[in-house]
Write a structure and sequence with these properties.
Elements lengths: L12 E4 L6 H13 L1 E4 H7 L3 E5 L4 E4 L1 H17 L4 E5 L12 E6 L2 H10 L4 H12 L2 H9 L5 E5 L3 H21 L3
Parallel strand pairs: 1-5, 1-6, 2-5, 6-7
Antiparallel strand pairs: 3-4
The structure holds adenosine-5'-diphosphate and manganese (II) ion.
The site of manganese (II) ion (MN) has 4 residues, from α1.
């Protein structure tokens, strides 16, 4: 097939969406049940201290994107060399090179459900509202559609445990098909 993806023997998947939609929970299950390596990008940023100052107005650390992408490039290259696939989870998707991923799973959650989850997480009103607004405006989904080929962007609901199980199942089926299609 000639693109970068065809050199991999296992697929790489990005689970993305607004904070609280269930990326980390879903990606952990995918890692376990599909047999992929879970990369929690938010955790990686903290571990490697990928910060470039602090934005006082937004009350948040500024991401050192170059440092993060350099570190991830090594992780992705190493995984590919070892015949490992990766399931990454992060609340943004447009910062990554397109060639890294074979599937972009965008999780969606109803406003009331997301409210409860963000409240349980101790987010203040401003942060809750910002994230709920972003989910209503489908910011991450639009970003995904702008950054990747339409065919690889899959939008799925993540409101209930049944949704999560069905999403993991779907990724499992998708992976089996990917392995067939990419077998030598
Ligand atoms: P994210 O990584 O997207 O911020 P998490 O995976 O940390 O989200 O999930 C946030 C909270 O919502 C957790 O308490 C998790 O158990 C719960 N949760 C996530 N997805 C679902 C779902 N599909 N159904 C029910 N609860 C969920
Ligand atoms: Mn998370």
């Amino acid at each position: 097939m000639g693109d970068d993806g065809s050199e991999r023997t296992k697929p790489n998947i990005l689970v993305t969406g607004t904070p609280g939609v269930g990326k980390t929970s879903t990606a952990s299950l995918i890692a376990e049940q599909v047999g992929l390596k879970h990369v929690n990008v938010g955790d990686l940023i903290k571990e490697l201290n990928c910060y470039d100052g602090f934005d006082k107005e937004l009350d948040t650390n500024i991401l050192d994107e170059d440092k993060l992408l350099d570190a991830m490039e090594v992780i992705f290259e190493t995984a590919a060399e070892e015949g490992q696939g990766i399931v990454a989870d992060y609340h943004a998707c447009e910062i990554f090179p397109e060639r890294w991923f074979d599937l972009i799973l965008v999780l969606r959650t109803k406003t009331e459900t997301l409210f409860d989850r963000l409240a349980a997480r101790g987010y203040n009103e401003k942060k809750r509202d910002e994230n709920m607004q972003a989910e209503i405006m489908q910011v991450v989904l639009d970003e995904a559609r702008e950054s990747y080929t339409k065919e690889i962007v899959h939008e799925v609901q993540s409101n209930t445990i049944e949704d999560m199980d069905s999403n993991v199942d779907r990724v499992n089926q998708w992976t089996k098909q990917w392995l067939k299609d990419n077998a030598d």
